[in-house]
Amino acid sequence: MTPNLWTLPETVHFADTDWRVHTDFRDVLEILRWLDGSADPALTNSERWYVALALFYRDFSLMPPVQYREACEAMATFVQAGRPDGGPCAPRLMDWQQDAALIAAGTARAAGQDLRALPHLHWWSFLGWFDSIADGPFATVVALRDKLRRGKKLEPWEREFYRAHRAEVDLHRPASPESDAEKQRLLALLNEDERREK
Asked: What pLDDT is recorded for position 92?
């Protein structure tokens, strides 16, 4: 079912029930943090979706497990706010967590106020302000990521910007349990070498 884009829904409907949901943009950003694995990389995909459902639905404890699939679909539709899904092959050009400071600055500029200071801002309203980021550092970073992804030649000013802001431009991957284990192994080797030197 296509959502009514002229309203700010406080519920989603499936299984003949209107389910109350958390609609503040901070709530949805936290849900996305769990879904992308950055909140806890050790969780499986199913476990991440379970946590996301529990965070999204106000009455999740009342939901029968047989409805979880429908609940996931309804949550995804809400998060997309009626926008078409980019699909699994859509290029990843931004990260809500990594780009948080740039997004906050861009939406504040577009809205004429810091949206983080509002006690509640519906996710769909936040997305409207997010879409209004026309220029500035966030737009520059995303444009550079797209050019780099496609192998396009950078203009001299873009190369300079990239050199100065590489940490912001390069997208980071969330740590995985394997990378944590490898990090611990390397630290143990380093500690062993330090003990031998003493």
From this structure: 83
